[in-house]
Structure formats: C-alpha cells, structure tokens
Amino acid sequence: MILDADDLDAAQTYKILISTIVPRAIGWISTLSKDGIPNLAPFSFFTVVGRKPPVLSITIQHKSDGVTLKDTYVNIHDTGEFVANLVTLPLAERMHKTAFEHLPEVDEFEAASLEKAPSVVVRPPRVALAPVAMECKLEREFTVGDFGDHVVWGRVVRFHLRDDIYNPANSHVDTAALAPVGRLAAEYTLVENVFTTPLEPTILQERQGTRMHRLDGRPADWSAVGQKNWSPSGSVLEK
Known about the structure:
The protein is an alpha+beta fold. The protein contains 5 helices and 13 strands.
C-alpha cells in the first residue's frame, strides 16, 4: 500500500511513524522549573545528533489539549538545563507514571516514588537508579511542523555511568548488561536480544513470521493505540 503523506491528518501520520520507527530510545528527561520544582517526563522522539561536542535532541509536543506547553519544554526554555536518564525494566512502571499530565507544581519524582541523585554541573537532579544519565545544557531550540512541535538540542556536559557497565580503559559500555526499555507505538519493549550478522539460516527460518512476545500477558494482537484513552499527543492522562 502506498500512502500520500499530504492526504493524511496528524493523527494518522503520527500512528504510522510511532508504529514503524521502532524501537525508539526513551529520553527520560528531568528538569527544574524557575521556582525549583523538579519535573520528570519520558520522550521517545529522542536521539543523538552530534558527537563532538555530544548533542542530544528531544522533540516535545504540546499537552493533550494541543495548546498548553509541556512543563519539560517550559523548564528547558527558562533554565537552559536538563538531564536525560536511561530507562530499564525495573524503572519502567514508574517511568510510565511520569508521563501523566500533572500540574506544574507537582514533583514527578515524588509522585512516582523515585529517588533523586544530585547532578554535577546542572541543577536538575538525576534518577538515582538509572544506570546512565547525561547532564545537558541547552544548545539550541526551534519548532517543526504545522503544530509547532518544539525541538531542543542539549550539549552533554557530564556522563554518569554505573561503574559495573563502563570500562574506562577502552571507553567500552557493556550495552548487553543494560537491558534498556524502548518505545514502540503506544507500548514498550525490553531490548534483550543481541546478534551480529550473518545469522544461521535455521534461525531466520524459525523466526520468520513470528510476532513479538508480550511480557504483560495480553493477547498477541492487542494494541495500545487502539484503546479509547490513547492520545495522538502521546500524553497519558491519569484517571
């Protein structure tokens, strides 16, 4: 099937993008408001865009009403600082809770029962249990598209790497020990398979046509995108 992107509305395009550009890394972004209130929220329009200096990119949509700016963007715009934390399986449920649309005065660390750890250069705290965290200073910001999605680039000024995953002798991070959680459409995936090519033909044949294995016990064809509380803004509304 061939679809003309100009014929699709924003929700249709969004569904296709988030369902096919997978898995996406989750930028679990911690910030501080001008008044010093901590904020923590996950973003999967997140990637690295530069290596020297190291630069990360986050695309931040509006809240589910399509108008209100998200606290993460407001805080980065106002203070010029943030921290990108890595999400692992033990942290996944609490990460999901930080996607709820809390009021600006709510500390999401406290709402999700997460311990803070101090940063070195920037003011926003880190997620204490995250094996990787990157302190960032705002490098640039701009808007993209008809709805004015905000893109922020942050220059990494400090890396926090758990001692058991990093070998300073060769700058090697033991990625296979991380088991990070990634984003699919409106669901998550645990990255736990590692391989190099070529694979044995028997392995390819055994896996041909197989579906992803669900860890949550739901039916194999269940999709969060098809649920009534799904929002094209990517927000999760707390009930």
